[in-house]
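Notes on consecutive records. When two proteins share a document, each keeps its own sequence and its own token line. Never mix them. Below: protein one.
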Amino acid sequence: MTNEEDDDIKYGRRHCRKLMELVIATWGRSSPFEPIQAPLLFYPPSYGEHKYAIPTDRSSCSSPVLFSDYGMVVDEIHNLCKNSSAFLPALRYLLGKGDTFGGNFGTQKRLSYFNLSNNSKKVPCGFLKKFPVSNSDQIAMKSCNGVVVVSAIFNDHDKIRQPVGLGSKTIESVCFFMFVDDITLRGLHYHKLIPQNSSDYKIGVWRIAKVASNKLYENPAMNGVIPKYLVHRLFPNSKFSIWIDAKLQLMVDPLLLIHSLVVSTNADMAISKHPYYIHTMEEAMATARWKKWLDVDALTRQMETYCENGMQPWTPDKLPYTTDVPDSALILRKHGLRSNLFSCLLFNELEAFNPRDQLGFAFVRDQMNPKMKLNMFEVEVFEQIVVEYRHNLKKFGNIEAAKPKRKKRAERSHEYFFSNGGSSSGCQKYLLEMWGESHI
């Protein structure tokens, strides 16, 4: 083990202990329910689930999240989930068959669904092809009628980590689902985390649902977008959900988080602000600069499409929305009409362009009607409720990750995004407003 690895492990453990103490302190001594202290699972040493924790920049939190008594939270969320009228009216979905899972609609067709002034319109929201999981997983997904926590690992990109600080009632009432593909499943077999002769898998609190991803999208990241944004369709009877990227470890009980960040703020969705950017174009530039998406020409077309159809840089006029760029690694939702509509519309944009969800986030949020009630919490809150780890640095054994076909090299580099918005750019006005005319 290198010194760097050892330091990362020690840092991760110190950070986990610090956060665990914080979580326990929030429960209130009057609560009859104590957080579970014992590890939910003992991993084999070869798996290294706590390697490569990413340090945070902040040693303290000036915007702490306040949690109510756990017993009270359990009762309130339970009663909310029994009250179906609190989640009405229900969004109606376009049914049928398509060449792709989402239908791959053109720009004007997608935009025609943004204004839902009446609830008679059926909205495209994926599932124009079957989502390929087992019948037993489908039955289990439909049986989740309260809160569900969802994550996904495709192409063996991350490790499965157990949440910390769960209450006994949470274990009993909350569904935890991890979607994986065959490559990831082989890695779990290799580490002996699951038996090879079983069709139903569970690792700690996580139910492992295998997805036949070869029947969906070629890009593993796009397959991960399905459970990330269409969680309300995968779990049609659930009332609240938490999406957590597999690079994160949840450090606070999900019921406490839902109550504090969604229920108490009367929000449709809660999501962290981005630590650096507030304008969509800034995120697009970073996406090209750091080669997070190699087809810069396609990024350019996406931004020009949005600019030509009303995308504006962030200004105080957009308040109460405090930024245009989220950190979408953690998303908490109430499954009502507004958040479901947003999720459907954004999924359609991701299929049309690329799975970089931060690029279409503000465009969909600002253009959709009815407007969504959004709680965009501070980055320091995000850093206190999760621990972030690096993606898998290497594969083990004979596991080989699938390599998506490389797209042709883009004709334009990321420098294009810094141009003065010449005659070929539909974003000249956006750039002028974002940077100021003198800068350009």
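Protein two starts on the next line and is unrelated to protein one.
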Amino acid sequence: MIAGGRNLLDDAKPLRAYNVTASSRLLVTRGTAAHSAELAGAEAAAGAEEARAAKLERLKAAADRMAARGDGRGLTDRYEFSLENQAGTALSLSDGDRRGLVLGLALHDKGKASMEAGELQAGLAALGELLLAEESFGLVSPSVLEGVDNLAMLLLDIVWCCYKLRDVSRLGVCSERLAQARRMLAKAHGPHQERLRLLHGGFSPEQAIYVRLELLEGVVAFHSGEASAAAAHLAAAQARWQRLQLSPGALLALAEMGYAEQEAQRALRFSGGDLAAAVDFLTEQRQREQERRAERRKQRDWLREREAYGKTPSGKFVDQQPLQQLLQLGYQKGLAAEALRAADNDGQAALDVLGDPVRRGALQLALIAQQMLEEEQGPQSVKASRVWRLTAMGFKEKAARIALKAAGNSIEGALEQLQAMGEDACDPEAAVARGEAAAAAV
């Protein structure tokens, strides 16, 4: 039975479940059980494909929303997001390039997670996610991609996914992806990996990605009928793999020094198996990690601080750079931040206000009034509707405002804060009064 272009396969469902009405046209055919089973299989396969396509669209939309967060530098009300190079230095990118990179990285990570599931359907989902990631990286300027190896790694994963799916037809056309990956690795690392050596202080770089590249090039060449090229690539992969093998004694020595196994393996590979060089490498890496953590703590402190200043008329946070410039001129921090906020981050306009004694005095009075109000009622920058919801639950208004401020206007987070405050945050009489008022209104 067919209605509206669909096969009605489930006899247990009533016709109204398929939106069949008295005026609907039905096509009824009689076939064998085998034919019915074939139709059912085709319908199930089509349904699975539709579900997979819908999942990919939801995934892309979610990653796209994440990529669009923030004020152009990956900063949001409640999240800290930044992109760093291999040295741990934050990258300065245009909005379009940052969006494409974030979207591509998020989809790539999701695709790798799907690949690890190992099942056929998971592999198909992984391939779709990886192809979406490739499309996202296509939105990034070529000059940006030349300095990173993320797209090259993605291309290797796409080819590897095709191999795991035993999709020979796709493998046959993967040679261009591998060639592109090799070109991009040469630009990012240098033709002989000299950029990596320079980056890591003269240490030899890891060879694992080049083992994968040679191996996949050998597999693709084999399935393309190029036996001699396949043998050459596989021999090169074998030779590189041999160089990755580590001395058990060196690993044991580093373990006795307190280094984790994975950390020790990486250090030995970067140092070409030299134990003393590996120790130097580990010491340097730990120092760099401490510096990165300190920088992240400093950034998190600024995120909390800027929330206290409120947002500009255009809805942005106070910009740190012009604020630092005003501080260097000797202005008090709170006053400079308020001038910037009111001037919508226009440094010159804020400086004009601060340089005018009358306007500066008015700004100081406004700040004092704001501070007195917040001391009495709590933070004023939180959403009034959420304050009302919390006070309706029996919490004091000031406690609700403080909790919302600490939780970034999140009701769930504020409730956790209020529960931690205990009885000091509760106002049972106010809750009863609000309940009676609501009942009277009804």
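For the record: Residues 33-67 form the longest helix (35 residues).
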